[in-house]
Design brief:
This protein is of the alpha+beta class. It has six helices and 14 strands. Bound molecules: thymidine-5'-phosphate and aspartic acid. Aspartic acid binds next to strand 4.
Length: 258
Amino acid sequence: MNKRRRVYEGKAKVLYEGPEPGTLIQHFKDDATAFNNKKHALIEGKGVLNNRISEYIFLKLGEIGVPTHFVRRLNMREQLIREVEIIPLEVVVRNVAAGSLATRLGIEEGKQLPRSLIEFYYKNDELGDPMVAEEHITAFAWATPPEIDEMMQLALRINDFLVGLFLGIGIRLIDFKIEFGRQWENEQMRIVLADEISPDCCRLWDAVTSDKLDKDRFRRDMGGVLEAYQEVARRLGVLTENPRPRGSGPVLVSSKPT
Ligand code: TMP
Ligand code: ASP
């Protein structure tokens, strides 16, 4: 394989230089981290599932007019994306109390919130991604007031769409984290959805059993992480090929003509 220039390496993904200027290749790794990298493991096959799940969701969002960085999937682990300037904020949307909100405000996990909440966190690993207010965002020029408005509107549209998409496959979308970037075309700038949307950055509970189908299984040592991600992929209909168990050779499925 030819050597590609590595532009950036994060905890779960690597970005390589793309085939044309203004493009990048987003590579999904199997690494799982939690609590700002204090906990780390390899979950074989996670990257392949996240690549597929995120592709599906970004394409669907594109269809309803949400601008995204996604261009096309290239292979099992990689997708072609447009290069954007990442806004250094993690935008969290919450429908149901869980995780840090439940802990911080003493609300029981699983309690439906009176309305969807949007929170901003400053993307900075050394500081452990602290929560920030709009005041901090504008004072430190991480984003302008119109950009904050645009991100909030997009976040709510994405939330409305994803709540319905997941409910249709028997999953409650509890909360999720997204990231946005600035994309320039000629002199025009627009805010686009970037990064990924996968069980790594969402809380997804089975609508009937409340089983967790997301990275909380890893954070909370519950086991069955890959199986949960596979279940999400299967319900979304993106797990078309039978993923071959590790170590086994080719399997003859049927020799008879169908
Ligand atoms: P939290 O309850 O831990 O603040 O997480 C809220 C949502 O954001 C949850 O769906 C998990 C996601 N998330 C990330 O994707 N990356 C992170 O670093 C953190 C802390 C949360
Ligand atoms: N971004 C966090 C970390 O690595 C993971 C998380 O809790 O989602 O460590």
